[in-house]
TrEMBL record:
Chain segments annotated as coiled-coil in the UniProt record: none
Origin: domain of life: Eukaryota
InterPro entries (alphabetical): Ac45_acc_su
Any one biological process term the GO annotation gives: regulation of cellular pH
GO MF annotations in UniProt: ATPase activator activity
Transmembrane segments: none
GO (cellular component) term, any one: proton-transporting V-type ATPase complex
Xref: PANTHER family: V-TYPE PROTON ATPASE SUBUNIT S1 (PTHR12471:SF2), VACUOLAR ATP SYNTHASE SUBUNIT S1 (PTHR12471)
Full protein name: V-type proton ATPase subunit S1
Amino acid sequence: MSAQEVLRGNDEVIGQVMSAMKTQAVPYAAIYTALQPSREAVSLSVEAGSFSVEAGLGGGRSLLQARGGYREKEREKERQRRIKEKAVTYAPVEFKEGEDTCILLWAKGLSVSILRSGRWEDHDLTLSTFGEGVSPKLHGSSCDKSKAK
């Protein structure tokens, strides 16, 4: 097998790895060269992530690898999760007095802020109030023909 055939086979494997990473949304960029490396490994810290040059002692290809965007990926996951949560239509919270419904709470979201030690703490109660399989505690609720609490 010629060197060109070996490199072509390596390129196919690299392509498969890059496709798998893209499919799984892994932030990854790589630059391959055919230059003989001048050193074994060097690491640099850069704003977008860390760069490292890795090379075998036998010469051949070297890899400049950028593995950055971890924070950006996590932020994007969190943003997508919030969008998905907001897109969900929740069943209403229902309080009955006997057989009659007298309190019906239907909302896209429910959050509260508590002032504790001079700082506001925000708490999202949406999933614990409306989430799938959740049974909110309604003890202390009451209602009659003139008021509900």
